[in-house]
């Protein structure tokens, strides 16, 4: 809507007063005819641009937050693996249980089961984090391969993992445990 002549005159008077002591040649207020429709349209364009810029900024922040979340989840899982590996390195008795041929004593069976349970909990955490988009596909593939490697590395590990999965059948079908369901090498 176009401003009335009276509104333009009032606006021009206010501008002339604001010009105050400026020379007349610099204060062209007498020649101002404000098109309020154009001013409104320019304001709407600026507002729309601000919304677009804000949305682009939010998308960037969300991508950064997702990346940070994945990095944090990966770090937590790796720390848990490091803790278990440190346990193997520092506990000769545990290493003996993992590689012992023949029968295990009840105490050794309990140690084996507890160790297998800790690994299974990590693998289950990896599966859950992957399913929730918190870790990358490459990291998940590496952790899945770790299941197979650990079953081959320690002859008694399979028995402990199979017992854990039998006790928790609701997770036995998860993809990360596929190597456990596969026949053992040499069977």
**Hey, roughly how much beta strand do the residues contain?**
under 5%
Compute the gyration radius: what is it? Answer: 35 Å
Q: Could you name the ranges where pLDDT drops below 50 across 5 or more consecutive residues?
A: none
Estimate the helix proportion, in percent.
Answer: over 70%
The mean pLDDT is: 84
Q: Tally the helices: what do you get?
A: 8
- The structural domain count equals 2
Strands, total number: 0
> Overall 3D geometry?
rod-shaped
Distance between the termini: 87 Å
Helix-strand category: mainly alpha
Largest sheet: none
Question: What is the chain-wise order of helices and strands?
Answer: HHHHHHHH
Describe the structure.
The chain has eight helices and no strands. With 187 residues, it is mainly α. The protein has two domains: 5-54, no CATH class; 69-181. Helix 4 (106-131) packs across helix 6 (157-167). It has helices at residues 5-19, 36-90, 92-99, 106-131, 137-153, 157-167, 169-172, 178-181. The longest helix is centred in the middle third of the chain and has 55 residues, at 36-90.
């Amino acid at each position: 809507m176009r401003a009335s002549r009276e509104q333009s005159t009032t606006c021009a008077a206010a501008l002339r007063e604001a010009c105050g002591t400026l020379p007349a040649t610099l204060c062209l207020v007498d020649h101002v005819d404000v098109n309020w429709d154009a001013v409104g349209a320019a304001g709407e364009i600026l507002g729309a641009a601000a919304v677009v810029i804000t949305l682009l900024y939010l998308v960037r922040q969300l991508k950064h937050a997702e990346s940070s979340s994945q990095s944090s989840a990966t770090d937590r899982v790796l720390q848990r693996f490091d803790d278990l590996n440190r346990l193997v390195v520092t506990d000769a008795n545990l290493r003996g249980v993992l590689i012992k041929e023949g029968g295990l004593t009840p105490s050794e069976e309990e140690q084996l089961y507890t160790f297998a349970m800790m690994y299974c909990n990590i693998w289950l955490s990896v599966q859950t984090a992957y399913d929730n988009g918190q870790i990358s596909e490459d990291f998940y593939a590496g952790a899945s391969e770790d299941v197979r490697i650990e079953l081959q590395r320690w002859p008694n590990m399979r028995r402990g993992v199979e017992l854990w999965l039998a006790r928790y059948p609701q997770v036995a079908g998860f993809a990360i445990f596929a190597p456990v369901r596969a026949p053992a090498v040499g069977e």
